[in-house]
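Sample intake sheet
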Amino acid sequence: MGDRGCHLRLWEWWQAVLLTRIEPGGSVILIQTRWDEDDLAGRVLADEGDRWTVIDLPAVALSADDALQRPLGAPLWPERYDADALAEISRPVGERVWWSLYMQQPRPQAGGVWQWSWITNNRISAAQLRGIDLTRIVVAVDPAGGESAVGDETGIVAAARDRDGHLASPAPQAPGPSCG
């Protein structure tokens, strides 16, 4: 989820390993959950999308040219998950999981106000932070909210500025997603 190193290694594997082993006249079927705009499917479609047949089956029909010719808003499998059930699922899983896992339309990890690189490129350790004369510290909390106890994770970010105007963000204390 958003790990550029993982994306690059997978793309290099796709180009150097998989594509070099396809038999003449062979086909490739790529099935995946779209967790990031720059994931394997995103890169394949950007690089050679005209060569692919895309079958996109979101949990809820989003367009008039739906692959199953469903009307807008119609659920994928109404006998199993009707519109009410899908609405109930979407609340606790949160926007990022809903749009990635259920709708196959990943949302960027960076928001509309903060860019992810602004945070990750300015992280320092707690030990490094101790020696800095800070003039301002800002902490922002996104409590995730919702009625469910299993909703989105709460987001907390801290940033600080020193007397010279340099900005820093302490390194996270919880492990992020891995590429294993």
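Comment: The longest strand covers residues 134-142. Helices lie at 4-18, 40-48, 83-102, 116-120, 126-130.
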